[in-house]
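name: query_chain
kind: protein
chains: 1
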Amino acid sequence: MHALKIVGGLYLLYLAFKAARSALNKDTAASGAIQESTAAPSPSALYRQGLIMHLANSKAVLAWIALVTLRLGVDSSWHDVAIILAGCGILSVVIFCGYALVFSTVPMIRLYRRARRGIDGVLAVFFCFAGLRLLMSRI
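structure:
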């Protein structure tokens, strides 16, 4: 438990450092500006990248498992499992397609570019606080 606490705290401090460095960076390339010479990735490559990122997010996977176990019991049938899996699939498609539509609009891209440094600064403070709090906590 102590090793996990130390590794987790150090990782949060690493994330705080990266977020702070990004917040202090005024470079337009860091703010998401697409350069003319860079070819845009194909839609299938973007989909694959997003899918891998989502499926590799252990926090999301564990949260879904925790939610599913609240509904499923020892007397649950395969119908219950199928309904829950279908519901999770439908929710995922609707939510992530909604994110893609909303966050790919020109107004949202402009808003993010203006707010990026502030968002990164707030994340840096939050990660630093959480990392230090975790490292200084007692188990």
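note: The helical segments are 2-24, 43-55, 58-71, 78-103, 106-136.
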